[in-house]
Amino acid sequence: MRGIGVVLLLGSLASAGEGRRDKWLFEGESAHYTIQSTADKKVAADLLKYMDLCFDTYKRFLNPAPDRLPRQKFTLVLYKDRDEYKARGGSGRFGHYDGRRLVGFHDAEQMLPTFAHEGVHQFTDICIPNYDRLPSWYGEGIAECIANNEVRQGKLYLCLKKGPVPKIRLYVVQEAIRDGRWVRLKDLLVADRKTFQQEWKVYYATSWLFCHFLLTYPKQEDPAKQIPEGRYKQVVVRFHNAMLDPKIKVQDAVTQAFVLEGKPLNFDDLDKELREYALSFEAERPPEDR
What we know:
The chain is an alpha/beta fold. It folds into 2 domains: 1-127, 3-Layer(aba) Sandwich (Glutaredoxin), CATH 3.40.30.160; 151-285, no CATH class. The protein is 47% helix and 11% strand. It has 12 helices and 9 strands. The strands form 3 sheets. The protein has a 5-stranded mixed beta sheet with strand order 1-2-3-5-4. A two-stranded antiparallel ribbon has the order 6-7. Helix 9 (200-216) packs across helix 10. It is globular, with a radius of gyration of 18 Å.
């Protein structure tokens, strides 16, 4: 969740850890990652394997130019629990990307989706020039879609209708619709990071839902495909490809991307469709913030 105050503090662990050394219970490496961990060895080893599956999915989904792929393995840091993570300067709810490493702690439900989410930021950082100009609705929404995955027969399947992300996001969106706090698309698409920080719960939730909708609609999920082939998927593909141009303005990328069958999409119509889509899901009240 890069760029949002509740999640990212660049270099926080580096500065917090100056003058001290962690005693790692487990250190290892895989095809694309190295890990340093104070958590149970099996938990850490399983995370390492899982992140290799994520890496392959990131590459397929984000389609970076070959010359932008990393030459060195990414680093994972896994602490045994929240207390240790916070004591080491951890700035996120369950983890964060500090500009160099993916850092988090063992949590039975949220560890894997958190590392998958933060891994999207790390990977997008290397494949999109001038990454900081990427709008939060896209950066956070796509990260949530990829994080909301299931491993089946050694492959990651994305955009589940139920899973760790809808469990904490869906109710927030539905409640915002009922209470009149719905974030309209015309506002979501231009929201800056300060706005995301101030109203992070509803903006994160709406960004996830919007990207899930673009990839999956009219279905709630597409369990036969690793990456869904929904009606608006090409909008996501076109927007991402447009942002690979370091000189393009975000609004121009939106104009290029939000087209269907050669005609510009009407955002008021799309907004109505998205609200109806949100309410079609069965949501449960999420657990209170810990």
